[in-house]
Amino acid sequence: MSRIVRAVNKAFRAVKGSAEDDVSVRIGQQVTDRVAEAESLTVEYIQDCVIQALRESQYGEVADAYSQYRDARDLERIRRGELYKISSDVIGAANPDLLRENANLNGESFSGKMSRIGSEYAKWIANRFVLPSELYKAVKDGYVYVHDLDQYALGTTNCIFIPFDRLLAKGFNTGNGSVRPPQSIMTAMALVAIIFQSQQNSQFGGVSANKIDWDLAPYVGKSFRRHFRKGLLYLGETSGKAHEGSADGSLAHLLEDGELYIDNMSLKAAYPRTYAYAYEETVHETKQAAESLIHNLNTMSSRAGGQIPFTSLNYGMCTSTEGRLVTRALLDATIDGLGRGETPIFPQHIFQCKQGVNQAEGEPNYDLFLKAVECSSRRLYPNFVNVDASFNLPYYQPDDPDTIIATMGCRTRTISDRFGRNRLSGKGNLSFNTINLVRLGMESGIVFGKRTEPDLEGFFRQLDRYMNIAVEGLVHRFEIQAKQPAKASDFMMREGVWEGGDSLGPDDQVRELIKHGTLALGFIGLAECLKALTGKHHGEDEGSHRLGLEMISRMRRFCDEMSDKYNLNISLFATPAEGLSGKFTAVDQAEYGSIPGVTDKEYYTNSFHVPVYYKLSAFEKIKLEAPFHKLCNAGAISYVELDGNARMNTAAFKRIVQFALEEDIGYFSVNHPLDRCPSCHYEGIIGSACPGCGAGEQEVHFQRLRRVTGYLTGNYTERFNSAKQAEVRDRVKHL
Predict the structure, then answer these.
(1) Which of 129, 14, 116, 133 has the alpha carbon at shortest distance from 64?
(2) Phi and psi of 346, rounded to 5°?
């Protein structure tokens, strides 16, 4: 009651210049009596009672003054609270790394800031009210990281491989109208962009085509048939050889769709001029379509902040003439670049490598592999996925292109399914959590001088503990996702992008469908963990390398056991640390300070990679990292860094790629500097001055393209967070 009396007296002073003790005490007593009868009390209810009592006592002006005082106090409390800090940090750009969590989003734009405010508020809700208590504490203490936390409470899913073959064949509805099946390759590629755009709003992660060459080949055939019939009409060509049942000597029976195809040599012989015209026009149209697709996928700012959908195209295995035309056109369009020759940021290209198909002279698609090497040496794309890897080949069925291994650009792999759907399209990853191996290594290692040998028993006990917490969090999140109605993911379920979604009613739960997706347990900082435990990372010492393999093998066994326990696809992920890159490091530095080789950088090393600053050859790095790939069944990638202009030595580039494939690496890429002068359009390595026109860095803003987590971004000095920028500066060349 005394607090009420003091507050009312302040209101009297504001209005009348002095306190009214008797009135204030009487008002205080009235309010106390009234709230005593209430079933539940809040500050707001008590304040409402004070205002009502003042008005009933004919002190309306004082009631207004009290209400203003109340509002001012409320505002002050808000300003001191977390939510106000969330918005003020974003609006005022007080934390650049917060705005650069996603390198493909312009976080400093108006829409980017709006998106970030919503994202940070959603994270606050999840932390305070949704996360299991043990997981929340593990996150707060820096042992576990929940990726895409802003989507947790909503039950949104992560990424998907889109069944373009089905969607294009039957047509689809975007929600604003229906789209007919395409009748040409130009239209088909235009619809691919629309499908990508429509789907990415049903989820929060990447969208990928796992076999775009197979999916689009039929529409090259449709274009050829159209051009052939048009050419026959314009050229008036008749067959030079009479056929039974054909009075004019034409091959009329060949004009059926089933016989109008590029590889029909009888057609070519009978109508050479028409065939040549149709073939040339088909090739030209396919190239134009590919160019249009790549331009579209780099200009569809369909998410807030000018964010382009995270698109990936897997191809390289279709040996039909039509499929090969698709692959070649995509590679040529990427080599040519955008309007002024700029390297396209999206889509991410992944070339599917298979012995007997494209890996040696004489194989049907070897020329396309060479073209892919040339393209990657110029544009950093495509990356290379290994169909022959020991952990991919068992799923491959030559008569089913949907079983060819494919990946999201970042590295995600989802082919294995305990429920039997061991193919790619129509499913994806649901969510993933990451373990901070470095903190566990410091707690049980020799790094602080408290022991001469690492406490491996203690390390593995703590690892098991936090893996349990992380996986229980994944299962908890799955339950939220599984209870969502089909209408929540709209296009994805309604159109059957997630296989079986088109059989659900709008209010049906999606549990039985999304169980085919994966839940991934990730890890970061194996190198720093080993350094803290033993004094040497796995690039420096064979014993540390064996210990690193033992750790990751244990994590994989744990995931397999949890898959059996929960009857879900729980897999091990070599985490692509972008936004996470410096977060664990900052927490650990605050507690333990700067420890050489452990916490002395702004970042922890990506997954199981040998540190970017450690000098060794490309072939040594590949050999050291290769054994980890088969353990990470949710996906992994390895890189090497090339010095100089990679496009000048494609033979060495090819040798490195094929060596990685031979070493059983599942997904591989070659990094090399790609700078561009906007003045003269020179591309290559640019120091402080452009080799092409001599412009200096003070005169021209050079564009410096680098890879992060498998994807490319714009200028890395503007889009990468500070931790990733530091990592780029530390990268040594392996060749």
Answers:
(1) 14
(2) -130, 155
Kindly tell me the burial class for residue 255, based on how many C-beta atoms sit within 10 Å of its own C-beta (0-12, 13-18, 19 or more): middle
The rounded radius of gyration (Å) of the Cα atoms in the chain is 31
Q: Are 483 and 440 in contact (CB under 8 A)?
A: no
Q: pLDDT tens digits for 183-242? A: 999 999 999 999 999 998 899 999 999 999 999 999 999 999 999 999 998 998 876 544
Q: How far is CA 282 from CA 191, 275, 291, 408, in A?
A: 18, 10, 14, 30
Burial class (CB in 10 A: 0-12, 13-18, 19+), 92: exposed
Give which of 530, 480, 622, 408 is closest to 155, Cα–Cα.
Answer: 480
Q: Taking residues 320-333, report their average pLDDT.
A: 98
The type of residue at 279 is: Y
Tokens 């209408």 -> residue: 487
* AA identity, residue 430: L
Q: Within 13 A of 706's CA, how many CA atoms are on the CB side?
A: 24
Residue 155, phi then psi, degrees to nearest 5: 80, 25
Neighbour-count burial of 158, counting CB atoms closer than 10 A to its CB (0-12 exposed, 13-18 middle, 19+ buried): buried
Cα–Cα distance, 336 to 344 (Å, whole number): 9
pLDDT of 79 over the 50 cut: yes
Helices and strands in the chain: count of H runs, count of E runs: 26, 17
Tokens at 272, concatenated: 């050479």
Strand 429-436 and strand 518-524: pairing?
parallel
Half-sphere exposure of 495 (CA within 13 A, CB side): 27
In this structure, the chain runs to a length of 735
Cβ-based neighbour number of residue 425 at 10 Å: 25
Token digits of residue 229: 């019939």
CA dist 297 and 194 (Å) reads: 9
DSSP string for 281-325: HHHHHHHHHHHHHHHHHTT---BTTTBPP-EEEEES---SHHHHH
Using alpha carbons, select from 683, 669, 603, 666 the residue that is nearest to residue 641.
669
Beta strand 348-353 pairing with 383-386: parallel
Would strands 711-715 and 703-708 be described as parallel, antiparallel, or unpaired? antiparallel
**Cβ atoms within 10 Å of 153's Cβ, excluding its own:** 17
* Mean pLDDT of the residues in the chain: 89
User: pLDDT tens digit string along 682-705?
Assistant: 888 888 899 999 999 888 888 888
Q: Quote the CA–CA distance of 65 and 15 in Å, as a whole number.
A: 7
pLDDT digits (tens, 9 = 90+) for 127-162: 989 999 999 999 999 999 999 999 999 999 999 999
Region for 503 from its dihedrals, namely left if φ exceeds 0, alpha if ψ lies in -120 to 50, beta otherwise? alpha
**Strand 667-671 with 383-386, pairing:** antiparallel
Kindly write down the DSSP assignment for every residue of 179-246, as one continuous string. Answer: EPPPSSHHHHHHHHHHHHHHHHTTSSS-EEES-HHHHHHHHHHHHHHHHHHHHHHHH----SS--TT-
> Does residue 347 have a cis bond before it (omega within 30 degrees)?
yes
